[in-house]
């Protein structure tokens, strides 16, 4: 119950900021965001239908896709985020925060990406191509920001046709900034190797296995100075699991020697969240 409350709170805040960034930084300058939001801005340009309602309608078939591949809980949080965004974009006035287009597209892109990343990290998404990116990320182990950037090539081409090449350059700035910002927050694709040298190997190994359902490899070791028999535990986790893992190690064995390195690539069986 507490976890759900935290998820809803974070997604609500990030969705509010997302709606504000769209109406204050991007839409007033006709700078496109990635995915559904970008196409919604184009449709709004020709029809003057509120962008938030367009986003909601386009997302309906993607909700169905996400339900089958990402689960009921994920889609409930996603639908909540999309509906909230649509309503807020109707309420928040479309007014430029700054009249400088370059500043607006960079800040708008970064805010957009941070909010999208936060939604995904806390169990939902902002809908649209984020749903497709999360599905592909789980299957191909690629970052959501990287996948989103490539998927947004269609948005860039549309921007060039509708708003001209000059506006398209600003769209590229916004999409690139957004993609990088997503990966700053959503880090499940980043793998970390944690190596622990401990005398309390039994307690630690059980804790690590149950903490994130990750495998643990154990080897024998001996301290050169103390000649005490120890064990070396090695496990691979994702970056956003690191803080909880470190805290668990401190509780079980405050004297354990731990070193942490980034895993460049992981082959073989690795459970993806």
In short:
Helix content is 64%, strand content 11%.
Account of the protein in words:
The protein starts with a helix and ends in a 10-residue tail after the last strand. It has two domains: 184 residues, no CATH class; 73 residues, 2-Layer Sandwich (Alpha-Beta Plaits). It has a four-stranded antiparallel sheet, covered by helices on one side. It is built from eleven helices and four strands; from the N terminus they run αααααααααβαββαβ. By secondary structure, the protein is an alpha+beta fold. A hairpin with a 6-residue loop joins strand 2 and strand 3. The chain is elongated, with a radius of gyration of 22 Å.
Write the layout of secondary structure elements.
Elements: H1 2-26, H2 35-47, H3 51-70, H4 72-91, H5 101-121, H6 129-140, H7 144-151, H8 153-163, H9 165-185, E1 191-198, H10 201-212, E2 217-222, E3 229-238, H11 242-252, E4 257-263
Listing every helix as H and every strand as E from the N terminus to the C terminus, the arrangement reads HHHHHHHHHEHEEHE
Largest sheet: 4 strands, antiparallel
Q: Span between N and C termini?
A: 20 Å
Strand order across the largest sheet: 2-3-1-4
Helix/strand structural class: alpha+beta
Work out the count of structural domains.
Answer: 2
Low-confidence stretches: none
Looking at the structure, what is the overall shape? Answer: elongated
Mean pLDDT across all amino acids: 79
User: In percent, how helical is the residue content?
Assistant: 55-70%
**Spatial extent as radius of gyration:** 22 Å
SS field, number of helical segments: 11
Strand content: 5-15%
Number of strands: 4
């Amino acid at each position: 119950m507490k976890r759900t409350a935290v998820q809803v709170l974070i997604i609500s805040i990030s969705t509010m900021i997302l709606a504000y960034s769209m109406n204050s930084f991007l839409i007033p300058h006709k700078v496109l965001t990635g995915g559904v939001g970008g196409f919604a801005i184009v449709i709004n340009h020709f029809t003057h239908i509120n962008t938030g309602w367009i986003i909601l309608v386009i997302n309906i078939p993607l909700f169905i896709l996400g339900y089958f591949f990402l689960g009921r809980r994920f889609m409930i949080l996603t639908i909540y985020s999309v509906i909230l965004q649509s309503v807020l974009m109707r309420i928040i006035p479309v007014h430029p925060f700054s009249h400088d287009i370059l500043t607006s597209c960079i800040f708008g892109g970064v805010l957009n990406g941070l909010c999208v990343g936060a939604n995904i990290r806390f169990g939902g998404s902002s809908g649209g191509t984020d749903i497709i990116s999360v599905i592909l990320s789980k299957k191909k182990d690629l970052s959501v920001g990287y996948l989103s950037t490539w998927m947004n090539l269609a948005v860039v081409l549309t921007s060039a046709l509708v708003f001209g090449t000059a506006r398209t350059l600003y769209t590229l700035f916004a999409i690139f900034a957004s993609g990088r910002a997503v990966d700053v927050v959503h880090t499940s694709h980043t793998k970390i190797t944690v190596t622990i040298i401990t005398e309390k190997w039994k307690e630690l190994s059980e804790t690590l296995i149950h903490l994130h359902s990750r495998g643990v490899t154990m080897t024998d070791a001996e301290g050169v100075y103390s000649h005490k028999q120890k064990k070396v535990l090695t496990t691979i986790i994702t970056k956003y699991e690191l803080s909880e893992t470190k805290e668990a190690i401190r509780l079980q064995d405050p004297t354990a020697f731990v070193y942490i390195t980034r895993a460049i690539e992981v082959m073989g069986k690795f459970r993806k969240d």
